[in-house]
């Protein structure tokens, strides 16, 4: 055996059975839960009781389930929005800003136009405005990326803070309710999304989007162009695709959906606008999207899981006085474990002695 | 207009110092081709663990606590917390080949959660705001240079009136710049970030360089979080104080064009922009719009850099891309 052969070599594998893949993912999840138990133990709580409390407070009661769905809707929506961008290898991490701008545009109509039109029309206009502004906020970095190759990861990130700053300014300035309150007044009832089964109807919209995104990414010309561009820009160019157009179009679609989510959150949940309307969803949704391997149906599961965690953690704070920030730790651990486990699905390790034994046998 | 220029510069420097650490750390990381978007999380961890370390030492040592030792302990705790976070990132992205953007964001979620959790736990334990004794507080935030230097008019305040972290930060940035440009190891590191396959062919251990740069960089970034908590926030854990600091540091990396020396004045400028709304109120610009100035400036710099296409101003060529020797 050659001395230079490394102890462990890696080889790509594409032949793993579906059942095996899911087993590995399940194992990673279990490992994350175990690490979570250790964290609970360090924090001085009974790990089993802590998990029990989390599940009971999120899934045990009707109000808990509703809250979970409320939390999951924006995660799922933004996860779906990001999927085509990520397939194209365009790193839109500006979901946060696109949500905020969407919410802002919707709020403008909710605050100043509510007495001029019927509720249904108002809600429709709010949605359109939200999508337009979300798309606009995605359009700016996309154009620079398409024309001059400006780094979109960092540009979209900056756009987040600019959007949040604009809303913070509106909140304390032009749109402020009571002078000095720093709060924008609540929306009129006409501008609030109606409830279906106890939760604002955004959840139906998001489920429809799941179907739309699945078809769009897998069965349309646009989806095909996005996939080719993501694999190789040169191939896309040789095939005669307009790379700039596809980039900008996809980013704008993504921004529009993020804007729509902002509208749902502002109108359906908060019924007002404030600077923190996105509340980190734009970032968390990136992990939702990635963990689901850009599969819209898997995103439903992942976003529900993260929503259960965050609702459970707030229950934990009330019941066992453990800071709710533990949900972020556990979410982080789950994400890191799941990210790590993909390696064992995509690669196989070849050990030196094993290979030698294999050769002798052959 | 009536405002105190020396006071403004001083405030800008003090506010910029956490950014200087955060940015320099991330520059080192990015020079290896790793884009760690977890700086926000690392700075939270550094802030919380640095405070926890100093707090623990204060409790243990009581009245006989030495200020110098407290500072060293806080530095070490925050640095190690950062190394730990960056090690997770390195393992996942370098060894397990996970996507850097997503891993960085997961690290941010994990790190901010962990930082908040440690901060909150400390608060629950003490029952109220935690704080260390005034004598120790002074050793973090008080000027370290002799009074006679500080008494020089204007220059005394602008140059000599700072706490030790300011000088440490500037020294660190200079050393990092020398390392990157004047030493063999530094050049190797830059080679890894520009073209890992070329570096690999030249016999440079790509994995080792990436690991070490990312972990050291993470540790340095985390010190920035500690400096913020111990000086600007007055050793009190405030769960929103640090938020956004890490992202500004990432923005500043671009603004500085990946050069540690630029980070010195860049961080002072950004530190100034961040507090300008308090110091130089211009009646027709609302303070909230003022606050987004650093981000607008960064976006503009980003555009200009991409328009000019000057070779020495570009990001490391392999930034954000994974390196798999087997996939060539």
Descriptive notes:
With 362 residues, chain A is mainly alpha-helical. Chain A has 14 helices and 4 strands. A two-stranded antiparallel ribbon of chain A has the order 1-4. In chain A, strands 2-3 form a two-stranded antiparallel sheet. The model of chain A has no long low-confidence stretch (mean pLDDT 86). Chain B has one domain: ABC transporter involved in vitamin B12 uptake, BtuC, CATH 1.10.3470. Chain B has helices at 5-31, 39-61, 67-95, 100-126, 134-141, 147-150, 155-160, 164-182, 184-194, 196-201, 206-232, 245-255, 260-279, 287-291, 293-308.
Oligomer: heterodimer
Number of strands of chain B: 0
What is the average per-residue confidence, as pLDDT of chain B, rounded to a whole number? Answer: 86
Mean pLDDT of chain A: 86
Question: Largest beta sheet of chain A: what is the strand line-up?
Answer: 1-4
SSE order of chain A in H/E notation?
Answer: EHHHHHHEEHHHHHHHEH
Q: Name the shape of chain B in a single word.
A: globular
| Alpha-beta classification of chain A | mainly alpha
CATH arch. level architecture of chain B: Orthogonal Bundle
Instruction: List segments of chain A where confidence is low: pLDDT < 50 over at least 5 consecutive residues.
Output: none
The Cα radius of gyration of chain B reads: 20 Å
Q: The biggest beta sheet of chain A, please?
A: 2 strands, antiparallel
SS summary, helix count of chain A:
14
Cα-atom radius of gyration of chain A? 23 Å
**Topology pattern of chain B, helix = H, strand = E:** HHHHHHHHHHHHHHH
Structural class of the helix and strand makeup of chain B? Answer: mainly alpha
The third-level CATH topology of chain B is ABC transporter involved in vitamin B12 uptake, BtuC
Helix fraction bin of chain A? over 70%
Give the CA-CA distance, first to last residue of chain A: 15 Å
Strand content of chain B: under 5%
**Mind describing the biggest β-sheet of chain B?**
none
